[in-house]
Amino acid sequence: MNHIDLKGKTVFVTGSAGFIGSNLVLELLKTQSPIHIIGLDNMNDYYDVSIKEWRLKEIEECVKEHADSTYTFYKDDLANKTIIDQIFTEHKPDIVVNLGAQAGVRYSITNPDAYIQSNLIGFYNILEACRHSYDNGAKGVEHLVYASSSSVYGTNKKVPYSTDDKVDNPVSLYAATKKSNELMAHAYSKLYNIPSTGLRFFTVYGPAGRPDMAYFGFTNKLLKGETIQIFNYGHCKRDFTYVDDIVEGVKRVMQGAPEKKNGEDGLPIPPYAVYNIGNSNPENLLDFVTILQEELIRAEVLPADYDFEAHKELVAMQPGDVPVTYADTSALERDYGFKPNTSLRTGLRSFAEWYKKFYQV
């Protein structure tokens, strides 16, 4: 593995106003200064844009505190090849972290177009730009890190999920686009010797997270006194991973690129890797909801006497959903010495405190 020192580097982060992207930018500014970060986000209204704007403000504040670092933001689309090529020509990124994507399993059932544009065409634009970054003997991109998803495991019966498992049975278009990202990256790594690492994220949560995620939606509904639906009659298990753990994992992976080497045929062995990043500790959805409720009461988002039982309804599975996600993270631990370990209570406590402040409950 090639060690990369991030200090002084130019890093291109797509989806930089997103949940994981914005937290990664903040972490890099705080720990890797001087660093030059280029951010891209189309700021679409798939969910409340004011949360994305809040995240961008956090970044602006952080840049002021780290005067030797820079952050340049482009409000544009991954699917816009012209802007991607322009960014590569102007800024010549050393490292690319592709977190920009249309997220969500359920939305992919009603809005497939968004996924093809962002997750396939957008990712293709990134791969092409990485490929051409080596033109005319230029040093080019040292490492491409990109987001995949635990959803690629589909209805895998074997748990925990290992990156050695076959993942040929996606149950949503979203999952299919993420699996194709891994396939495309593999082909480009092989053909053009681009060091690439895919990260399969497992149910990421935390403050200023995505409102389409269950814990956030539950909170909104409970606050309005509406009923929350718990799928698969509460028998869903999820490997909930706190956002800070995900970001720490991404940061470490950025610093270790798969090595370029040639095989016996003299052709490149693809410098390609895929890792799981999850808590490897699946929690029952009902337990998750109980802790969430306790933390919302503690943060005074909900009143102490809130009648929780009256507001929950157990319902059947939804199309595209899977009953359990469970990450085998031994490879990440072996290669990068890191294992996510933030407890659910710690994570949900920071979410509840952020929620109270952001919505001024």
TrEMBL record:
Keywords: Lyase, NAD. Pfam families: Epimerase. Coiled coil: none annotated. Signal peptide: none annotated. It is an enzyme of class 4 (lyase). GO terms for molecular function: GDP-mannose 4,6-dehydratase activity. InterPro entries: Epimerase_deHydtase, NAD(P)-bd_dom_sf. Residues 11-264 form the NAD-dependent epimerase/dehydratase domain. Its EC number is 4.2.1.47. It comes from the Bacteria. This is GDP-mannose 4,6-dehydratase.
